[in-house]
Design brief:
The complex is a heterodimer.
Chain A lengths: L33 E7 L3 E8 L2 H5 L6 E9 L2 E9 L6 H18 L5 H19 L8 E11 L2 E9 L3 E6 L2 E4 L28 E7 L4 E5 L1 H9 L4 H9 L9 H8 L10 E8 L1
Antiparallel strand pairs in A: 1-2, 2-11, 3-4, 4-5, 5-6, 6-9, 7-8, 7-10, 10-11
Chain B lengths: L11 E11 L7 H18 L2 H4 L2 E8 L3 E8 L18 H21 L2 E3 L3 E6 L7 H12 L8 E6 L5 H7 L7 E4 L5 H24 L13 E3 L7
Helix pairs in contact in B: 1-6, 3-4
The chains are: A alpha+beta, B alpha/beta.
């Protein structure tokens, strides 16, 4: 048995997952390398899992992704994912700050549309700026937020993002990405957009909206999952769809989702976050 | 599956590095011997980190009057021994740049067929002298290699010692900050080359780490006996 920790193998396995995970000098629950959660309301089923990538685990670093959901009133759900930029220095901290600020803001807002979606992104950006002051770029993080409204016609979704964390619609085994571009890039490159806004060039805020069809899931992903999903149409994409198919019925547990998020695949060692909702 | 914005091919991330070594006559003696002594260290050092080893691909190109590939781009885990390089003649930068463009283009297409998704390739350019080919010729070749319209254009780190000219190295590195380095005045090649080779390993490892944690960058090494060549950051 390998001394390392890893979930299922999807594609060619990663040799890095065979190495034992060193004991970090300092660890607290809020910075855990493995996090999982979920629950059901009258309108929604939500599942979340976030795991540190094997590269961070082997180097004794925390997971630099963050996520949150907020249910400010029945029928309204916000989902947020942020991915701290590792090379920025304190990206994980920035992701935490951005997610917390947006979450707190969304719990108190009156409206629930594109304006509130963009406002949540700006609040997150301002919070990162304020926390970092002159060194705010050290807290650089991607950010994606989705506001979901349950209605008789189906669930309406408004989204906004900066950076390469993304959102997908999953219907059975079909994935549709709501922000274009990821699979079209010939070469993989650096993250161009981050919070705080204005700390780098090209901080384009993107928006999207969609009406979730019946039986569909909205799935927010950090690039640690989104990249291999795009690159693994015969492995990661169908395998993750199969795992998530157990979500609406309650058959999929948060811990099982975290195990799946920890899949082994050659060259894929980034932190991974999956935050999914199924309207009921 | 034919989902919108999803890929259609199974692909794996790869970060290609090309070491482009000057083997002109001025490298004869201790410098070339040290390069040959240090090359195996790249393989063993990179191979020690499984996370790095599965992402990087490494190739070696040498140049003098002409340029050639002495180690085709490869997974270092599959290399049994590193090549040795030999001193040749003059110092044609245009030969190096033209060869790199051809090799990168060919390797990219071969990689795609093999299911690779590339991070932008990196060239680690090492020279101990000034180009002996006409300036306009090597500048044209350099423009072809770094042409932004060519989607595979590499990022370049340039290192010089001996008779290398800082301004020329800065041009090779596209006048980007912290991309061109020259040995401190008076530093002997015998001190510079081992440090430089160790620095290249450090750069490869750090760059690979930045890639697999989602923020790919070409990370310059720390080199006590070398200093970054200042450039105008506005350019």
């Amino acid at each position: 048995m390998s001394p390392g920790w890893a979930g299922p193998v999807w594609g060619e396995p990663s040799a890095a997952t065979e190495a034992p995970v060193p004991l970090r000098r300092r660890a607290v629950a809020s910075e855990a390398c493995y996090r999982a959660d979920g629950g059901q309301s009258a309108e929604f089923v939500v599942l979340a899992a976030s795991v540190a990538g094997v590269a961070h685990r082997l180097s004794g670093r925390r997971c630099e992704d963050a996520y949150a959901w907020a249910l400010p009133r029945p029928g309204r759900l916000a989902l947020i994912v942020a991915d701290g930029v590792s090379t920025a220095g304190r990206g994980g901290e920035g992701a935490d700050i951005a997610v917390s600020a947006a979450w707190e803001h969304l719990l108190a807002v009156e409206g629930w549309g594109e304006m509130e979606c963009l406002a949540a992104l700006r609040v997150a950006s301002d919070a990162v700026s304020a926390a970092g002051c002159a060194s705010a770029s050290e807290l650089s993080t991607t950010f994606v937020v989705a506001l979901v409204s349950a209605s008789e016609a189906g669930a309406e979704v408004r989204l906004a993002r900066v950076g390469d964390s993304s959102a997908f619609i999953l219907v059975k085994d079909r994935w549709d990405e709501l922000f274009p571009g990821g699979a079209e890039d010939e070469l993989r490159g650096s993250v161009v957009g981050v919070l705080p806004l204005g700390s780098r060039g090209g901080d384009a805020v993107e928006t999207a909206s969609v009406l979730l069809p019946a039986g569909a899931a909205l799935v927010l992903l950090s690039d640690g999952v989104a990249d291999p999903l795009r690159d693994g149409p015969g492995t990661v994409a169908p395998a993750l769809a199969e795992v998530l198919s157990g979500g609406p019925s309650g058959a999929l547990t948060p811990l099982a989702l975290a195990d799946a998020a920890d899949f082994s695949r050659r060259g894929c060692q980034d932190d991974r976050t999956i935050l999914a909702v199924w309207p009921r | 599956m034919a989902s919108r914005y999803l890929g259609t091919e199974e692909r794996y991330a790869v970060f290609p590095f090309y070491l482009c070594l000057d083997v002109s006559q001025s490298m004869a003696g201790e410098p070339i011997a040290q390069v040959n002594a240090e090359l195996p260290q790249i393989r063993s050092s990179v191979g020690q980190d499984p996370a790095v080893a599965e992402v990087i691909r490494f190739g070696v190109v040498t140049f003098s009057e002409g340029a050639r590939t002495v180690l085709p781009l490869v997974d270092l885990a599959l290399v049994e021994s590193m090549p040795t390089v030999e001193v040749e003649g003059r110092t044609s930068y245009s030969a190096a740049f033209d060869h790199l463009r051809r090799v990168i283009e060919a390797d990219y297409h071969a990689g795609r067929l093999a299911g690779e998704r590339w991070y932008r390739p990196a060239v680690l350019f090492v020279s101990d002298g000034r180009p002996t080919d006409p300036e306009e010729r090597w500048l044209q070749a350099h423009r072809r290699l770094t042409d932004p319209a060519w989607r595979r254009h590499p990022n370049i780190l340039a290192f010089g010692f001996g008779e290398a000219v800082p301004e020329i190295l800065a041009t090779v590195a596209e006048n980007k900050p912290n991309r061109a380095y020259v040995a401190a005045e008076g530093a002997a090649p015998s001190a510079v080359v081992p440090e430089l080779m160790a620095g290249l390993v450090q750069s490869i490892v750090s760059s690979s780490a930045s890639a697999y944690t989602g923020s790919p960058q070409l990370v310059p090494p720390q080199l006590p006996n070398m200093q970054p060549i200042p450039v105008d950051e506005l350019e």
